Structures are given as structure tokens and as C-alpha cells.
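#dry-run=false #mode=assembly
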Amino acid sequence: MIRFDNVTKIYPQQSRPALDDVTLEVEKGEFVFLVGASGSGKSTFLRLVLREERPSHGHVHVAGKDLARLSSWKVPGLRRQLGTVFQDFRLLPNKTVGQNVAFALEVIGRPRHQIAKVVPEVLDLVGLSDKASRLPSELSGGEQQRVAIARAFVNRPIVLLADEPTGNLDPTTSVGIMRLLDRINRTGTTVVMATHDAQIVDSMRRRVIELEGGKVVRDQSRGVYGYSS
Amino acid sequence: MRLRFVFSELAIGLRRNLLMMFAVVVIAAFSMMFLGTGLLMRSQVGITKASYFGKLQVSVYLCPEGSPHPNCPAKANDAQIDAIQTTLENLRPLVTSVQFVDQAQAWQIFQQEFKDAPDLVKNTDPSALPESFVVKLSDPKRFDAVNSAVASMPGVDVVQNANTFVKKLFGIMNSMRFAALVACGVSIIAAGVLIGVAVQVAAVSRRRETGIMRLVGASSLYIQLPFLLEGVLAGVIGALFGFGGIALVKTFIIDSQLKPLLPVLGGRVVEWSDVFATIPWLLGISVLVSAVASFVTLRKYMRV
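#status=ok
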């Protein structure tokens, strides 16, 4: 589903690479934690998958496509197969919950009747069907993140990328979000989640890829956040 | 492509950016007004030129009795007149007609031309008027060809070109048209830059939306179209106001202030049909300039 072949990313005007010769593969349907300190390359990894950045060396393959060979007008097509969730939710403050989710479909030109059908479905999935007409400011942080997940998932992506999705949430709320991501993963969606949250990683017991200074220093199936003997 | 979405985004953008759009509309209106004025001046030059074209003629004055001119020791004799006529006739097809005006005819024309000045007519001796050839040219600009052919022939006093005045007139009109087009060019550049800035402001103020659009895989056309339309719409509204300005110019300057100059301008000024004919130019150029300005700005400031 996602394959990195000797990928190095050096940002302009920086001597140290953000990712340094990374080779790894994420299979379809996997749930992968990307852990490591700030600046270890987690976000760069996600940006390369989204083709927000291009690698300085090496190749990134997503859903069978070599992103280096993907012409720029095909990038939107790639991103329609990827859902993305961020630490800061990135909701539109002047649109309701329902409108925020519908927005993701409107801007890719989906017909209205289809939007009217799938938006309530996905809001039901994230447990917010009764709050469709609320504004994001009226919701709790956890609820806002559920809206963001609904928006990322409404187009049924094959990969869900989550960049510190629980970073702004308290532990109890985080557990709820993780349950939701787990449920999405069980539908066959590959989930890649970058996180600092040791407790969550330890409790989920999924594959853990640890980055340090841009290098993969650990790749464990059913791993934990830190080294434990 | 869901147009309803594009237009709702456009409406949001216009509401948020109202003052900027106002500035764009004003400057676009002025630039389009200059452009239209320049176009009307071009039409007027055409009208005036056409009306003068048939009337332009060259007069070859023959030596009268007692001329001070060194080429005229005596009154032109018949042999000289025949030679001059032959030379002129040989200049066909440049020369379209050669007409001999004898003293009696010259006297009639003189009386006609100066009928408002009876004293002058009374005090003029008909025999002092020179005989002449009135020559019409297929191309009035080629006066020099006639002049060089006959000016130094014996019996020719002076070759006069009625063109000189017209040339001056066209000179004035052309420089006015040039000034209008320069003003138009400068203000179009200003309008283009302003549209670019307005679109940039709009794009920055809606970064959040466009960021999400990018992320969920909206095509760049879909993301940029509302901004592009915002710029183009401002340009089009500006062009319409600019046309309004031209209509005012037609009503209050051309149709009233220029009335006394009518004979000089060729008896006719630009019509409303000429004014309406500027509309496609104004709209076309304003759409082109605003679309290019918006597009360039979006390419530069909005990553897709």
C-alpha cells in the first residue's frame, strides 16, 4: 500500500536530512504507529505519502503508484484515496459539522444526492449524528476530532493518515478516538498514525515504526512505544 | 464540476473582500474608459480622414503678370501651360484629374470664397489672380511626386498642398489618441497589479479552506476557479462602468463640446454605433487582463 525505497528528504537550506535512507513497506489493512521525538521525521513521512513534498532521493509508492512519476494534475486523484487527520482538527469554523464533512465531497464534485446520503452515514459512524447542525466551536475537542475523522473518511479512503490526532486531547477522550480509528482500520482501511502518546501505543499493540534523526531505528509488529525488556 | 459550489465560494470571497474589489472596479473602470476613448479617437480620425480624402487637392499656380518669384520672369505662356499639363497628365494614375482654372474661373472662385469680405473683393483686380491647375491625387500623401515634377518648370509660380492643414489636424488627433492609449496602458497595468493583489489577499484569507480542499483531493481548477472568477468579475464590472464613462464622454463632450468643430472634423463625429463597438474590446481586454493577473498570482501564491 505504501512503500518507501531508500527515501531521503533534505529540505532546502538544511544540512541534516529530515528522512535518511528510509526503506519500509506498509501492507494493505495494517495499523501502523509512527513514533519518535519531534523532528525525527514523522511529519515528513506523512507529507511524502501525501505528495506535499517530493523525496530528494529514492522512491515513494502509494497504492501502486510511483509518486515521482505522478504528474501534478493526477495528485488530486491520489489524495482522494487518502484521508488525513491533524492534531489541530482543521475544521471550518463557520460551517456546521454536517457542512464540514460535506465540504470534502463538494470540492471533489460529488453529486448532491450522494452527499446527502453519505454524510449522515459517516456522522453516525463517528457517533455524532445528533450534532450535524452544530458549529465546531460548540463541540468538545474530542468531538471536533471526530468530525475531522468523519471528513477524512467520508470519501472511503484506502489509507488514513493521522498526524498526532490525540495530541490536543485528554487521555479518556484519546481512547475514544483510538477506538474510532481502530474501527475504521477494521473496515480494511490502512491507518498510519504519527504519535507521541506512549500509553496509546502500548495499549494498542500494533506495528510500531520508530524514527530517530530521520532513520528507522525500530520496526516491530505488535510493538510498544519505548524499548522495554 | 458543480457550479453551484464554485459560485457560493465566489460569493463568500466577494463579501469578504468587498473594499478591495471596489478599488479594483474603480481602477478597471478608468483604464477601460481610457481604452474606449482611444478607440473612439481612432474611429474619429478614420471618419475625418475619409471626409478629407476626396477633397484633398494640389494647386499648381502659374506665373501671373509681375510676379516677384525668380521662376517667373513673365506671365506663363501657352507653350509652358501645355508642357505643364502634359507633365501632370503623365503622372497618372497617381494623378486622377487635372483641371485648368483660367483667370475668369479663378475670379469666380475668389468671389465665392470671400463673399463675406466684400471690401477685399472690391479691391482685388481680377487680372492679378493667377491661373492654375487643380490636381487631384489618388493618394494625397504623395504630394511630393507632383511637386518635384512641376515645381521647377518654367511658368510655374508655386505648388500648394491643401494637405498641410489636414496633416496638422491629424497630428493633433493622433497625439491625443496616443495620450489616451498611454493612459490606458498605464492604468491597465495598475489594474492588473491591483487585481493580482486582491486575488492574493483573497487567497490568503481563505487559506484554511483551500488547504482542506487540497488535502481531500480537489483539483486545482476547482480550488482556483472561485478566485479567478473573483478577479475576472471585478474586471468585467470595471469594464461596464468604463463603458458608462465612455457614454458620458459621448453625451457631454463629443455631442456638445465638439459641435463647433464639426466642419473641421469632417462634418461627422463618432456615432453611438461606434461607441457600442468598443464594448467587445473593453470586455475582452478586461477579462484577459484580470484572468492573466489572477492566474499568475494564483500560480505564485497558491500551492496545489
